[in-house]
């Protein structure tokens, strides 16, 4: 099973930027589609960005134009560059594999907290 470790979260003012990282274990990383998800208090977890093994990306409407997902297969790492952050981006952010059916894998990491506040 893939082990996932997210990092890079923190407290940032509205309009600021953060770069999240997710290190994944296993030799099959480069073959996996990967996604970034977030869960705000009292809300369901939602996918905000995804990237295929070939590098094609997709974004939720709420973050399109502000967030960029990328991957480095040599480092088994997926990134999420977040710009123009808004208070409503406050959440715990997770990464996960995306299986062939489009669902997230069963294992989740601990996530990384992003708080956008003045």
Topology:
Layout: E1 4-7, E2 10-12, E3 18-24, E4 33-39, E5 46-51, E6 57-59, E7 67-72, E8 77-82, E9 91-98, E10 112-116
Parallel strand pairs: 2-10
Antiparallel strand pairs: 1-3, 3-8, 4-5, 4-9, 5-6, 7-8, 9-10
Structure in a nutshell:
The protein has no helices and ten strands.
How would you describe this structure to a colleague?
- This protein is mainly β and 118 residues long.
- It contains no helices and 10 strands.
- It has strands at residues 4-7, 10-12, 18-24, 33-39, 46-51, 57-59, 67-72, 77-82, 91-98, 112-116.
- Strand 7 and strand 8 (77-82) form a beta hairpin.
- It is globular and about 40 Å long.
Q: Supply the helix-strand structural class.
A: mainly beta
Helix content: under 10%
Strands of the widest sheet, in order across it, are 2-10-9-4-5-6
Per DSSP E runs of 2 or more residues, the count of β-strands stands at 10
Descriptive labels:
single chain; 118 residues; mainly beta; 6-stranded mixed beta sheet; 4-stranded antiparallel beta sheet
């Amino acid at each position: 099973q893939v082990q996932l470790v997210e990092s890079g979260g923190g407290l940032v003012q509205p309009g600021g930027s953060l770069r999240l990282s997710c290190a994944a274990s296993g030799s099959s990383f480069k073959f996996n589609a990967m996604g970034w998800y977030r869960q705000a208090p009292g809300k369901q977890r939602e996918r905000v960005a995804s990237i295929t093994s070939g590098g094609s990306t997709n974004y939720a409407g709420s973050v399109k134009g502000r967030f960029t997902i990328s991957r480095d297969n040599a480092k088994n790492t997926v990134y999420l560059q977040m710009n123009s952050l808004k208070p409503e981006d406050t959440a715990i952010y997770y990464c996960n594999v995306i299986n062939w059916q489009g669902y997230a894998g069963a294992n989740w990491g601990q996530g990384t907290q992003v708080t956008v506040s003045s």
